[in-house]
Amino acid sequence: MIIIEELSKKYSQQYAIKNISFEVQNKEVIAIVGPSGSGKSTLLRCINRLEVPSSGHVYINGAKITGKNIGKLRPKIGMVFQHFNLFPHMNVMENLIYGPTKLLAMKESNAALNAKDLLKKFGLQEKANFKPNDLSGGQKQRIAIARSLMMNPEIMLFDEPTSALDPEVVQDVVKVIKNLKNDMTVIVVTHHIRFAKAIADRIIFMDQGQVLCNQKTEDFFTNPKSHRAKLFLEKVGEF
Amino acid sequence: MFDNILQMWSSIIFIIEGSLITLKYSIISVFFGLVIGILLAICKTGKYRFLVYFSNFYTSIFRGTPLLIQLSIIYYLTPSLLGIKLTVFVAGVLAFSLNSGAYVSEIIRAGIEAVDKGQFEAGKALGIPEYLIMKDIILPQAIRKILPSLINELVNMLKESAIISILGEADLMRRAQLVAFEKFDYFTPIITAAICYYVLVFIFSWLAVKIEKRLQI
Asked: Chain B neighbours among A 127-156 (CB < 8 Å)?
């Protein structure tokens, strides 16, 4: 379980997120939505401490995340970025096995077997020796997801995973993320409202650094608690 | 002209052999310069303020004074300052490496900063310790980006190492001068030395292009 407790992040005088608290149950799928600049990504990045919160805490399975223990916790928290951030000097296979061999002390041959399984599952088995720059955006993003899954995470964080993709390939990536449901806790920050609707158990709507709605997905789309959320849904054509 | 060259053939060979000495100084100095440069660049891009100040100070000193003075200080002043008499070779390599390290550190710092910040974050998010992120993810990409500048530094070193001739080391330049004094002919030996330098630089540039192509991401 993830508990977020009065979390704030301030850049100079401006709050990016302010006093945010909520809980995420194990294996729950949460989508964080909201307009640009609402603090969605900052919130997500505070969970694995890529951003150090100005105040407040995050607890994972009861353990408070601190600067000291985050190094050990991060392998359990996978993260997928908007711009993939694959290591361009390594080929696909090397990207996948780097983490497990260096951090989980897994043998290279075992890691390679796992990697092959994942690639096969994602329909990318013939890309093992390709360099990331020779792949399409959709392929890159699926490899990035596979790289995180190689660490056997309990939690997966997705930061706008489909925003940099061509519309045509978004579905390939969405399908992969949907398949994670029931296997692990998933938190997705997304602009892609239909995707949020299709995948999430619960929606968190943010604006100006604050959580305005924290509702079950059906409720959010039929009866959003905040007027701002209703306006947002109307604008994106989902209400 | 050809008679002249034939007459001086053994002298010309003597000069060409000086290339090995020049190469020895340059390659060893570039290697240590690279090590020093990487360490300084890591300090410069790191979060420890003292190390940032130290590495910037180091760079300003070694960039702000002539190599000839640095070499002279190291060779002539170490006996009185530290009580150690350095050989010409050690003094030369030391001066060249320390000097090159300052320039290389700036090149590498620029390379590290040119690597997308997302690479560092992806490493962190996987839980990779910072020193491994630097070693396995950032530096390999930085070095690829700055390879042409690093080769430039090697080429500069190759040519600047001619300074070692003032301490009597029989490198390319010194040999050319010796032959010139002995034969009262400046043309042939100086041109021979120039050609040798050019050929060495040409070979390194050619190798660099090969390596660059191979390392392309």
From this structure: 131, 133, 147-148, 151
